[in-house]
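User: What would this chain look like folded?
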Amino acid sequence: MAEKVERSFLVGLIGTGIGGSLSPAMHEEEARRLGLMYVYRRIDLEVLRRNAAALPELLSAAESMGFDGLNVTYPCKQAVIELLDDLSDDARALGAVNTVLFKNGQRIGHNTDWSGFRRAFERGLPDAPRERVVQLGAGGAGAAVAHAALTMGVRELTLVDVDFERASALADDLQARFPETQVRAGDGTPGALGDALALADGLIHATPTGMTKHPGLPLSAEFLHPRLWVADVVYFPIKTELLRAAEQLGCRTLTGGGMAVYQAAKAFEIFTGVTPDPERMFKHFQTLLTTETR
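Assistant: Here's the prediction, encoded as structure tokens.
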């Protein structure tokens, strides 16, 4: 009798400067705990000396090599859309994709970022006021977390981006989908940003600034104040310069770790059809942080 062959999974992550990503370890450990054969590979554009223009070639190569799917991160979450055959309702509404499933000859884009951010926020800052929020960043991650913020009851959302037209387009889209709220593109000049933050309950940071490869603060620390909560989507390092500055002032903060875990859990389910244990993944993530920061 022929030996039964178990289904195995091959997935990966495409992005720039992803050498420190903990996604491979998170996915592979959860698969091990579930008894699945699972390999997760980084496809780092920085290492390959390529940019987002290489996406068509890389997606085709992954399909040819039998990948089950790919996670997609900065700077590819929007550029990848035109290369896909179909989108989930979330990805279509957000105009950003972080998970691509290869199935039956089709490339299907999903977005697990927004639900990952919402679950992390509800865990870490469950009682935080949400009347007025300022968000820095209107790219792929920014579109997802802005959507999440509005689903959590934010009444006034100001989007600030180095590309005002991009912020304005996202604000218009969100306003149309959440007509009971007020969404606008904000002036990114220091004075205007300071004024907006002075009236805000919270600040969401959704740009690459603060990542290990892009160190620094995305705004002047003088604009922060103790009444402000600060949530970052960056998780490597887990304590960005922004979060450190905010904590020194007494602000409540939320790292990008929870979002990283919960978006990964949903992506894992999309790739495998198997429901993982998000809380087990969260605990494992904490041990990875300890290892990485020794």
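The CA atoms of residues 182 and 285 lie 36 Å apart. If you want, I can go into more detail on any region.
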